[in-house]
Fold this protein.
Amino acid sequence: MACQYFQPCDQSADTFTIGLPKLTFGRGCLNEAGARAAARGLSRIALFTDPFLKNGPYVAIVQKSLQQAGIDFAIFSEIRIETDDTSVMNGAKFIAEGNFDGVISVGGGSVMDTAKAALVYGLYPADFLDYFGPPIGQGKPIPGPLRPHLACPTTSGTGSECTSVAVIRINDLNTKFVLGSPLIMPDEALVDPTCCDSLPANIVASTGFDLLSHAIECYTAKAYTRWGKVDDPLKRPYLQGANPWSDMAATRALEIAGEFLERGVNDASDKEARDQLMWGATLAGMAFGNSGTHLPHALSYGVTHLMHDITTRDYEVESPFIPHGISVIASAPAIFRYTAAGAPERHLEAANSLGANAWDAGNDEAGEVVAGRIIELMKKTAMPNGIGDLGFGGADIKRLAASTIRQVRAIANAPRETNLQDIENIYAAAINYA
Ligand SMILES: [Fe+2]
């Protein structure tokens, strides 16, 4: 099966490259931050976090660890949730003026992504869109290496500690785009599940569906052998399509999400489930960071671009706000009903890893099997039942699709050709689920 999916064809890629940070995982490992920074010879750290975490216990642990290692540091915390170009450029100024030889980020995806992008613009100043890909950006390569970055996630979803992408809201365009380069992958990830012990249920759910969707998108993505060969091997992107290595990490992440998502959301005292979700998020990050996501993430950016007046339980963020994981999963069942025809066996395998138990299902049932299992998990965790519950209706479909069609690379990574009309049809089918 895997061999067939990855069968090279004329002029297509026949090689993949896997990039990973050095990974440390376990309860209490935030205490190792200072020793690990010292081992890299770092003497002055830019410590990135957000205003909610700044005075909390996890940042305090990292600060103490740095002090014990004799490392100087300064804190940057002007980062909005669902970060934007303003946060990045303020962070870049902080980097440019602070004489730092390394960065530690402590937070969710917004904090880690801001640190990644701030290093780029702090060291290599440019117009903001220069390093973003077309059609919105110039696609210029980042000119050289960055500083060492140790990333410490505080939620079990983003996987950003293991990826070469940063998702940034561009305020002038009022939506999010992906900055991607092998150079922005953190050098080390310190993944401490203690950080998730006190997270509210809805944050565990939203971030958990983000990890679930990373894994299933990665597993069902277009094969790397369906992308073109690269001229310069050192410029091969990590977002290169599904490959045998990303399959391995995505499969285990799906098994974890299938077994532990409901438990981790609905019982804050279930440490086993929450530890497993943290491991699953990191695995899914290592998976999609080496393959890329596809339509669920592409369509999520249309949703957050055009969201109406809306707030979300358990998030202390002003309207309009829809957390990333919810914006991703709301359209996912309708998307997989569409994409399954492009790679039905892989959709069935992914659904079964997620606990669908549909071993006898035929290829023509693949989309329904994936959608059914996702909807089941959404119901068990009190998620919105489609984009209708996020305030969207039929009148929004054309604008949603027009926004999403700009996410060129993610759309091209889908296992099935997808045009503007297809995206309109998917949004219409995602308003609510029976
Ligand atoms: Fe995501």
The pocket of fe (ii) ion is lined by residues 210, 214, 297, 324, 328 (CB under 6 Å). The chain has 16 helices and eight strands. Residues 44 and 72 are 5 Å apart (CA to CA). The first strand starts at residue 22 and ends at 25.
